[in-house]
Write a structure and sequence with these properties.
The protein is 70% helix and 0% strand. The chain has a domain of 81 residues. Helix 3 packs antiparallel against helix 4, helix 3 packs parallel to helix 5 and helix 7 runs antiparallel to helix 8. By secondary structure, it is mostly helical. This is Sel1 repeat-containing protein.
């Protein structure tokens, strides 16, 4: 009894059908990675590449949060597309993208041509991102509570969010929290912890912290003896870092 062997054409057709079924079962998230989306977004932004922007729009229409966030970041410099930028960030943020939530907070907080600052609208988005351990969002939320900007002024809440940002390695938050512990503002007064945070912020190369530490060391205090040599080195370091665009913190 002879066994019929499938032809090469039949195998090819079967393989193509199997691949089609597999592709149909894939979700958009599986079909394209976040890294791919971000690479295309970089091309669209840096090279003003229209094809890359179209691809980004296609992915955003599929509901991919990373694509929505990256397209929103591309649009945020275009005042005429502010409403669409907000929609994209909101959609991505609600899908769990912490960076999109942070960017939406920034969009509301900063006044730009044609749109007034609205820190009250920014606060919940910062909180959403901060709860996902977004350090800069926690820092900004801490600042809102510290200054009573868009929210009720609350030193305890300010310290809470600054502490979260500090734990995530944000030097600006460490610096501000050091003052809170030195003064007992929103936390139990603890100068030793305040000094530790100041040292940590300086180690993270945050110029205001380095400069503050230099002045403390120059005078001497209960935590260290007067050391003018170290103070001089610290002041020089602070100046150098200021020239290197330390505003990234």
């Amino acid at each position: 009894m002879s066994i019929l062997k499938p032809s090469r054409l039949a195998l090819t057709v079967a393989g193509a059908l199997a691949f089609g079924v597999l592709a149909a079962c894939q979700t958009p998230e599986q079909a394209v990675s976040s890294a791919q989306i971000e690479t295309v977004a970089m091309t669209a932004n840096q090279r003003q590449d229209a094809a890359a922007e179209r691809r980004l729009r296609e992915w955003a229409k599929q509901g991919l949060p990373v694509a929505e966030r990256e397209l929103g970041m591309l649009y945020r410099s275009r005042p005429a597309q502010r409403a669409e930028t907000i929609r994209l960030f909101e959609s991505a943020a609600r899908a769990g993208d912490a960076e999109a939530a942070f960017q939406l907070g920034e969009l509301y907080r900063v006044e730009v041509a044609g749109a007034t600052a609205d820190p009250a609208a920014a606060a919940p988005w910062y909180k959403l991102a901060a709860l996902q351990h977004h350090a800069r969002a926690a820092l900004m939320l801490g600042l809102l509570y510290k200054n009573g900007s868009g929210v009720r002024q609350d030193d305890e809440q300010a310290a809470k969010w600054l502490d979260l940002a500090s734990d995530q390695g944000n030097a600006h938050a460490m610096f501000l929290l050091s003052y809170a512990y030195n003064e007992g503002r929103g936390v139990v007064r603890d100068p030793a912890k305040g000094r530790k945070l100041l040292e940590e912020a300086a180690e993270h190369e945050y110029p205001p912290a380095i400069q503050e530490l230099a002045m403390v060391v120059q005078q001497g205090d209960s935590h260290s003896a007067k050391d003018e040599l170290r103070a001089g080195h610290l002041m020089k370091e602070a100046t150098e870092h200021r020239h290197n665009n330390w505003n990234r913190f």
